[in-house]
Design goal:
Blueprint lengths: L5 H7 L2 H26 L37 H10 L11 H4 L11 H13 L3 H19 L3 H20 L13 H16 L3 H14 L4 H17 L5 H13 L2 H14 L4 H10 L5 H5 L3 H9 L4 H20 L4 H22 L8 H6 L4 H9 L3 H25 L3 H6 L9
Length: 431
């Protein structure tokens, strides 16, 4: 157990210190991303076209915005999010869409609209370019998430060493580089972790709002919404409200907890007559099925190649799940029962949704970052490693190396054989 003098403990648990730690991790990720791009990609600048903002010269025909990749943090899916934040669904037909309408990024219904909508709001309020607006959303969300990680309720349950060990395990997990990229991971993780902390503090309204926020960011955010509804129902069962209006308020909280999914599905139903438009659009755009059947009858080829794909997704997703199963009781036993129930539901549903959606999609590429957002899973790592500094050091060495040499390298290089060469993944060039 880590024993600190009272004066030191007061400092490291103070709000200014926690803010400084969160800011330092965000700055470190940004700085190392920029330096790695400069080192590995022949001096590539952070902004390759500072005087040319992203634009759509012909919104009805352009797949992606011109200069959409000028920022080094804008690669892969970021172009889709950027396009949505700039033109939304303005190029989609005003009717129920058929599969041909859903294919391609002009009418881009294959990506969740919550994160780009936040970027749109920031751009409208501040007037800054669309890519910087979207990136700022990720940075603010990452900062808030990392600050939340050392909340007193977590320190009380895990101890100071356990809380900070879990924070570093999360911050150096291979997909953690996505926290400061133009991607939805930081926002989704903030909602998921925010709901957990709020439930642990019996702040049920904040828990419901945070869970719904996660549900608006990614499809896997439904795990936070479902977990929060279960936790609220359980809390009402063990501590029943004492009046009719108290029951009404508790039921209303359950509705608030799914506000994200209701907003996305409701808009899609109103605009296109299809509340499940995202699911149908994703299937049409990426030509895959997904679904429960693939989860119950997984494809051997997908599982094998999921372990040896370009970022070794199943290796890290499996390692995280294994360590959670080893340390879950040690990590969660001091939290309130509704928070524990939420954590178990969140992790189980996140893994199930992520696996079902990626089983037949590019050999499960992205699985590790899909489950990375389920922050409470990392509390188990903190509990396991808090009293094992050598094991903690070995784990962080392995994850941080993979973060730099594989996950970050693949993202910054974008799609193509040159990325595979520079990231030492030449075995995948002809596959």
């Amino acid at each position: 157990m880590l024993i600190l003098p009272d004066a030191v403990r007061r400092v490291v648990t103070s709000v200014p210190f926690r803010l400084a730690v969160a800011a330092s991790i965000v700055v470190w990720h940004v700085a190392t991303t920029i330096s790695f791009a400069h080192e590995r990609w022949d001096g590539h600048p952070f902004n390759s076209a500072p005087d040319q903002v992203p634009t759509f010269p012909n919104p009805a025909r352009d797949n992606y915005p011109v200069n959409g990749k000028r920022l080094i943090v804008s690669r892969w899916d970021a172009e889709h999010y950027l396009g949505l934040s700039m033109r939304g669904y303005s190029q989609c037909p005003n009717r129920k869409l058929v599969p041909d309408d859903m294919r391609g990024p002009v009418c881009d219904v294959a990506f969740f609209p919550g994160y780009p909508f936040l970027g749109y709001l920031v751009r409208r309020v501040t007037g800054i370019p669309a890519d910087y607006a979207l990136w700022s959303v990720s940075l603010v969300a990452a900062f808030a998430l990392l600050f939340l990680w050392t909340d007193p309720v977590i320190v009380h349950a895990l101890g100071l060493a356990g809380a900070y060990a879990s924070l570093f395990c999360f911050s150096l997990f291979p997909p953690a580089c996505y926290l400061v990229l133009m991607m939805a991971e930081a926002c989704t993780a903030l909602g998921m972790m925010g709901a957990f902390v709020a439930l642990a503090r019996k702040e049920y309204l904040w828990a419901a709002l945070a869970a719904g926020f996660a549900g608006a960011m990614r499809l896997s955010g439904v795990a936070a919404e479902a977990g929060c509804v279960l936790a609220l129902a359980f809390s009402a069962w063990v501590d029943p409200p004492q009046s009719k209006w108290a029951w009404v308020r508790r039921a209303a909280l359950a509705a608030v907890a799914v506000w994200g999914s209701l907003a996305v599905c409701g808009y899609h139903a109103w605009r296109f007559g299809d509340p499940l438009l995202y699911v149908h659009g994703h299937r049409a755009s990426f030509q895959h099925e997904g679904g429960l059947e693939l989860l119950l009858h997984p494809r051997t080829e997908s599982l094998i190649h999921g372990m040896d794909n370009i970022v070794h997704d199943l290796v890290w997703a499996g390692a995280l799940l294994l360590l959670f199963l080893l340390g879950h009781r040690l990590a969660l036993r001091k939290f309130l029962l509704p928070a524990q129930l939420y954590a178990y539901a969140l992790i189980a549903i996140t893994y199930a949704v992520s696996a079902a959606g990626s089983m037949d999609l590019f050999y499960m590429l992205g699985m590790s970052r899909y489950v990375f957002v389920a922050g409470p899973a990392f509390l188990a790592l903190g509990a396991l490693f808090a009293s094992r500094p050598v094991a903690l050091g070995a784990w962080l060495l392995a994850t941080s190396w993979h973060l730099r040499e594989v996950d970050r390298c693949v993202y910054l290089g974008d799609i193509g054989a040159e990325t595979l060469r520079r990231c030492n993944l030449t075995q995948w060039i002809d596959r």
